[in-house]
Design brief:
Number of domains of chain B: 2
CATH topology of the largest domain in chain A: Rossmann fold
Helix content of chain A: 25-40%
Number of strands of chain A: 12
Strand content of chain B: 15-25%
Number of helices of chain B: 11
Number of domains of chain A: 2
Strand content of chain A: 15-25%
Distance between the termini of chain A: 25 Å
Shape of chain A: globular
Oligomer: heterodimer
Order of helices and strands of chain B: EEEHEEHEHHHHEHEHEEHHEEH
Strand order of the largest sheet of chain B: 6-7-8-3-9-10-12-11
Structural class of chain A: alpha/beta
Shape of chain B: globular
Distance between the termini of chain B: 25 Å
Largest sheet of chain A: 8 strands, mixed
Number of strands of chain B: 12
CATH class of the largest domain in chain B: Alpha Beta
CATH architecture of the largest domain in chain B: 3-Layer(aba) Sandwich
Radius of gyration of chain A: 21 Å
Strand order of the largest sheet of chain A: 6-7-8-3-9-10-12-11
Number of helices of chain A: 11
Helix content of chain B: 25-40%
Chain lengths: 313, 354
């Protein structure tokens, strides 16, 4: 993997609170920080409700962050007010959604769905150019140009997800947030979509934030992975490192729960349960670097213990 | 082992405005006492329809069992009247549905939902049924059952609801438990708990489980035997080791290859190209042929019969015919087979073709 160590996206101390009543607040994201380098795929995993989707949506400004900031190529994204600047940023960052049935407008033709971004950003000067660009995109994602005049209901789930990908690609983005792009698809179709995403990354030098709960697929596609638990990032490491040497007990528990297509392994699998009360509570945990690139949320006491654990291996 | 259920040449169709959708086209299998049979396949392969037919849960019209028999306890379930079926459904054969959010009645306390079957089938009094319901909730690992029995479904989390659904399904000690993607809507950690729970309960009650899923990881975890379905037919059936370590059908190869393992290093996954056929007009010959890179000429003309690989292992592909060319399965599958040869968990000699 050739990852140039140029930071494309810097998220620091991001918080997203939702008010659910007069006095109750849900802390969906509670102060998380990470960087995404240019050209890499950053995976974000965790159970439902841990805030991984909210993180993606907050980065792209579908929600206004409660606190913290997000920098894209060194520029603060959330401070921008001017609509001209916003537009420029929106073009660089696109999103692919989870549900291919709900994320395409049923009343628009595929042509209009894909070209919406072109229209908004004024990227095609003539109708011919617009049509040509849409047909190019359709073929790029493995559909036919004849599909342009059809409506979303005429397509299967996998095909719709391809339309969603074509729409994201239309404006030549540099960074794509993929929020569980394959969860709703059949196994054989999942592999098709993942392969397509990988190819596109190579051809266009894209950077991905890949959000999912299917850990074996995340490992397969990601260069680095962050594990979230209750709105916090508990561990972050290169994907091989994370699977080989998980340190945080939650990560261990999560990894031990993945069923693998191997009966022998499954017969001998030991599941580890996560008990949040096992942590040292003498001080607030901080995000610390155990070995270069391997970060864990821990107290200073735990920090020493984790270091020893790694040395043993 | 004793056979508890036998399904012979089952055909199920749905009459729609577009014509007859042949959802299940000749399915034959049996279920032994105390075993778990997993049925895998993509959406639309007919796996849910097949198992719903076992409990006669196919709405008719539009659905109908065109042909075939379902032998259970000396009776052919395919021909029973609804009245007679009601004596069996929920008592001898019960179902756990996929979505715990919609399979419970939101306006009924969960205690009453569990008691319903007990009062109807076991002729229990309300008080008896209630204490049994509390027992069941304990069995499925729900804390504070005496209080929770008076709560409504919305007061439970997804994993807890699925436990309640399992309690309902287990209420009358069914001989056959049909689990239709029981963990698909749940998180991995919760999924692992529910799978362990089902295995524990099976040990205690000796019931047989038919487990439907498209997640091969889950199959490897729970199944004793596996049936792979494609386009309304079983294309390969065998023990879990035979299917995972010595698969014979190219569709099974594709399914296994399209899932990354934790140590996979390939640059791209083997995706099965194209999409499943339209069951309004099932293709002539082998339905998988258009997506199959190993397809032979004969696949376009004639449907392959089931070829015997071992006593427990059968696959419907012409590649197993004695005149078929020798074909190398994909790398990822070969690596699996190597493990099989080493552990020797079953036999597969070349030349054992029928």
């Amino acid at each position: 993997m050739t990852v140039t160590q140029e930071k494309l996206l810097e998220v620091s101390n991001l918080k997203q609170y939702f008010k659910t009543g007069r006095h109750s607040v849900v802390k969906a994201i509670d102060g998380i920080s990470f960087d995404i380098y240019k050209g890499e795929t950053f995976g974000l995993v965790g159970e439902s409700g841990c805030g991984k989707s909210t993180t993606g949506r907050t980065i792209i400004r579908l929600y206004d962050a409660t606190d913290g900031n997000v920098k894209f190529k060194g520029e603060d994204v959330h401070g921008k007010k001017n609509s001209q600047d916003l537009k420029k940023f929106n073009q660089k960052m696109q999103m692919i959604f989870q549900d291919p049935y709900a994320s395409l407008n049923p009343r628009m033709t595929v042509m209009d769905i894909i070209a919406e971004g072109l229209d908004v950003h004024g990227l095609s000067k003539t109708p011919q150019e617009r049509k040509q660009r849409v047909e190019e995109l359709l073929e790029r994602v493995g559909l036919n140009k004849e599909h342009a005049n059809r409506y979303p209901h005429e397509f299967s789930g996998g095909q719709r997800q391809r339309i969603g990908i074509a729409r994201a690609l239309a404006v030549d983005p540099e960074f794509i947030i993929a929020d569980e792009p394959i969860s709703a698809l059949d196994v054989s179709i999942q592999a098709q979509v993942v392969n397509l995403l990988k190819e596109l990354q190579e051809d266009h030098g894209l950077t991905y934030l890949f959000i999912a709960h299917d850990l074996s697929m995340v490992k397969y596609i990601s260069d680095r992975i962050g594990v979230m638990y209750f709105g916090k990032l508990v561990e972050l490491a290169d994907s091989d490192e994370l699977y080989k040497n998980p340190l945080h007990p939650y990560t261990k528990s999560l990894l031990s729960a993945i069923p693998l297509p191997d009966p022998d392994y499954e017969r001998n699998r030991q599941r580890v349960e996560y008990d949040p009360s096992q942590h040292d509570t003498s001080e607030e945990p901080e995000f610390r670097e155990i070995t270069p690139g391997h970060w864990v949320s821990c107290t200073s006491k735990e920090f020493e213990a984790y270091k020893q654990e790694l040395n043993k291996n | 082992m004793e056979k508890i259920l036998e399904v012979n040449d089952l055909h199920i169709s749905f009459d729609t405005y577009g014509g007859e959708v042949k959802a299940v086209r000749g399915v034959t299998f049996d279920l032994k006492k105390g075993e778990t049979l997993a049925i895998v396949g993509e959406s639309g392969s007919g796996k849910s329809v097949t198992t719903r037919a076992l409990a006669r849960l196919i709405p008719s019209p539009p659905g109908r069992i065109k042909q075939g028999e379902i032998l259970f306890d000396g009776k052919d379930l395919a021909k029973l009247k609804e009245k007679e079926m009601q004596q069996i459904r929920g008592k001898d054969i019960s179902t756990i549905f996929q979505d715990p959010m919609t399979s419970l009645n939101p306006t009924m306390k969960i205690g009453n939902q569990i008691m319903e079957g007990l009062i109807k089938h076991q002729k229990m009094s309300r008080a008896q049924a209630k204490s049994r319901a509390i027992e069941l909730l304990e069995l499925v690992g729900l804390p504070n059952p005496t209080e929770r029995i008076n709560q409504y479904p919305h007061q439970f989390s997804g994993g807890q609801r699925q436990r309640v659904v399992i309690a309902i399904a287990l209420a009358c000690n069914p001989k056959i438990l049909i689990a239709d993607e029981p963990t698909t809507a749940l998180d991995v950690t919760i999924q692992a708990q529910i799978l362990e729970l089902m295995k524990d309960i099976q040990k205690k009650t000796e019931s047989s489980i038919i487990f439907i899923t498209h997640d091969l990881g889950v199959v490897a975890n729970v199944a004793d035997r596996v049936a792979v379905m494609y386009a309304g037919k079983i294309v390969e059936i065998g023990t879990v080791d035979e299917i995972f370590y010595n698969p014979k059908h190219p569709y099974t190869w594709g399914l296994l290859g399209s899932m990354p393992t934790l140590d996979s290093t390939e640059d791209s996954l083997i995706a099965i190209p194209g999409s499943p056929p339209d069951m309004l007009k099932p293709p002539k010959g082998d339905a998988f042929a258009p997506r199959n890179e190993y397809a032979l000429e004969i696949d376009k003309e004639m449907e392959p019969p089931m070829f015997k690989v071992s006593d427990t292992h059968y696959a419907a592909t012409w590649l197993l015919h004695e005149y078929a060319p020798d074909i190398e399965p994909p790398e990822a599958v070969k690596r699996r087979m190597k493990g099989f040869a080493q552990t020797g968990a079953g036999e597969s000699k070349e030349g054992e073709r029928p």
